[in-house]
Write a structure and sequence with these properties.
Length: 80
């Protein structure tokens, strides 16, 4: 006897194809949602929704990422 779960019946072509088609449509929807971007109100560059803009560092009308400080830190690291 088999020690692992064994399917009682062979799954039909229709059943397999139907399962795959529903999975495929859902996956396509997920992929399109992932690549959705919105224009930044400050610099009009495309950015991901609900995230701070990587170009100007703004989110909801104020600076959340100090890009100037980041750049100066990078320069310091290179010098040291
Ligand atoms: Zn921006």
């Amino acid at each position: 006897m088999a020690k692992h779960p064994v399917p009682k019946r062979k799954s039909s072509k229709t059943r397999t194809k139907r399962r795959y088609s529903t999975w495929e449509s859902g996956e396509l929807k997920r992929l399109t949602n992932k690549s959705k971007t919105v224009a930044c109100p400050k610099c009009k560059q495309p950015r991901l929704p609900h995230t701070a803009c990587s170009v100007c560092g703004y989110y909801r009308g104020r600076v959340v990422i100090d890009l100037v400080a980041k750049d100066s830190k990078k320069v310091q690291k290179v010098k040291a």
